[in-house]
Amino acid sequence: MKARRFNTVLAFTAAILLCALRPTFAQQSPGASVRAVVTVEARHGKEIPEIQRGDVMVYEGRDRDQVTDLLPLVGEHAAVQLFVLIDDASNGALDPQLEDLRKFIRNQPATTLIGVGYMRDGSVQVLENLTTDHQQAAKSIRLPLGQAGVSPSPYFSLVDLIKKWPEAQVRRQVLMVSDGIDRFWGSGPSDPYVDSAIEAAQKADVTVYSIYTPGIDHFGHSLWRMNWGQNYLSQLSDETGGELFNYGIAPVSFLPYLDDLSYRLTHQYLVSFIPKPEKKPGLRQVRFRTEVPNADLAGPDRVYVP
User: How far apart are CA 287 and CA 275, in angstroms?
Assistant: First the structure.
């Protein structure tokens, strides 16, 4: 019943936003330009410069693609769907940070739809569907279960969410709070489930941000496992255009990272470009660059070309 309500509400929400913002994220026809969300970052300090279409370069290997449009995602185009995913296998170090998450949710603008879910058993338990009622979304935040085996792999859960998330004509972003450890696969330089989660997010044009928080059981305090978990979170966020906000030990407070995320959401652009012609659809390796002083572009490593 909960899953049915989740899908129904999301579909209804997506339909409303589709009608309201169709000029922004229209569907692509074969041979047309494709689109990706990029974030402008400052190389030094917090002064982020504005960029224009001519300032953005998109490369496939050594070949430069034609950029056809650059849309600032502010004002009438500021709508975003943001899901906060919390790992139910987190330990007690997360408890003092829950109020920071509630405050972050309450302070989001009315253009942001927020959902709250908990990663467990390879899926997502949705406690609040995407909504503009930020007070209600904040109230849905609860203590994690903190039980061994409750979350075999956070990457299973992320894929589960993306599969249930109807296509939308606005940005889709995830804030993932987890230790990043894949207890199902283990550890090592290549995790197929991390790769699958990255591919699913790139195909769906979902940007993933992450905050490390320690998990339970032996893996949760094994330095070797912790390092790989954080590496996986960093890889996932970086390759989808997001950011891992801390690396090392549990943070004293989430507020600096959440403030950073709020700031990033106000400095994003929709880049439209024409990819190289290919016979088959699929993910393409791309690089986003700019020569504007003090500016860097953070975008996905791959985009899906239909």
Answer: 12
The pLDDT tens digits of the residues spanning 17-63 come to 444 433 334 344 445 789 999 999 998 877 888 999 999 999 999 99
Which domain covers residue 179, as residue numbers? 79-264
Contact 75, 278 (CB under 8 A): no
Pair 187, 300 in one domain: no
Same domain (yes/no): 203, 234:
yes
Give the pLDDT confidence score for residue 31 in this predicted structure: 57
**C-alpha–C-alpha distance, residues 304 and 205, integer Å:** 8
Whole-number Å distance between alpha carbons of 244 and 135: 26
Question: Residue 241 to residues 90, 148, 163, 206, 208: CA-CA distances in angstroms?
Answer: 25, 31, 19, 9, 7
What is the rounded CA–CA span in Å between residue 15 and residue 267? 26
Q: How far is CA 3 from CA 81, 123, 141, 305, in A?
A: 18, 11, 18, 30
- Domain assignment present for residue 10? The answer is no
Q: Are residues 168 and 249 in the same domain?
A: yes
Average pLDDT along the chain: 87
143 within a domain of the structure (yes/no)? yes
